Amino acid sequence: MEPRTTTQQGESWPRSVFLLAFDLRKEKPANRRRLGCLLRAAALAELMTSGSLADESGKARAVTAPAAPGRLQAAVWEQIAGSPPRSWGSWMRKDHAQAYRLVRDELEAARLVRVERHRVLLFPVERVTPRKPHLSRRLAERVARAVHGSRPISRVSPDVRVLAALAAAARLKTVLPDREWPLHQRRVEQLSAPIEPITTALRKNLQATESSG
Fold first, then answer.
1. How far apart are CA 64 and CA 30, in angstroms?
2. What is the 3-state secondary structure (H, E, C) of the chain?
3. Residues facing 126 on adjacent strands
4. Closest Cα partner for 41 from 200, 175, 202?
5. In whole angstroms, what is the distance from residue 72 CA to residue 102 CA?
6. Residue pLDDT, tens place only, 34-91
7. Most buried in the list 17, 100, 137, 160, measured by CB within 10 Å?
8. How many other C-beta atoms are found inside a 10 Å radius of the C-beta of residue 62?
9. Which residue has the higher pLDDT, 81 or 212?
10. Residue 106 above 70 pLDDT?
């Protein structure tokens, strides 16, 4: 996969993942903890494919500072650059709530989501809904086609390829029903190859979260 930068290719991967994870029927994003982990995985993937991070025996190593990063990408980069190399999974497990907030706020500022805040019995409650649901729907359709389509992997756009790999690792139901993901295992492996350390760590993290209840 060619090195990729957000400014050259358009929407950042964390922002695209947030939109992709919207359950349009229920009008809300996926479970926050799972989504936070997925958003950090997307940020790691963006930093890795742009050359800012490298895989060092299963650990994330800082290489060079990213150019014009999003707020989450900048936060993740600073954490990794200031620490010894650690596993990709450990960086995904860190600061889920912050990841969610940073990307949500970016999307709200871009008027792609609406955030309604109020209180119930003194507890703060918020409702996040997409302002342009067709964007989430179209994105899900493109990612689903990449997963179950016959188009050569080399002809799938880098952005869609990575989003499909991340969606598969998280088994996003907004893309395919849970029962269908195993049917496309070989295709998913091919899509995931450029960011394999990240998708493997994401899958293990989410499985561990589910097992712990």
1. 32
2. CCCCCHHHHCCCHHHHHHHHCEECCCCEECCHHHHHHHHHHHHHHHHHHCCCEEEECCEEEECCCCCCCCHHHHHHHHHHHCCCCEEHHHHHCCCHHHHHHHHHHHHHHCCCEEEEEEEECCEEEEEEEECCHHHHHHHHHHHHHHHHCCCCHHHCCHHHHHHHHHHHHHCCCCCCCHHHHHHHHHHHHHHHHHHHHHHHHHHHHHHHHHHCC
3. 117
4. 202
5. 6
6. 899 999 999 999 999 999 999 999 999 999 999 989 999 999 999 999 999 999 999 9
7. 17
8. 17
9. 81
10. yes
Instruction: Report the 10 Å Cβ neighbour count for 114.
Output: 12
In the block, residue with structure tokens 């029903």: 177
Amino acid found at 92: M
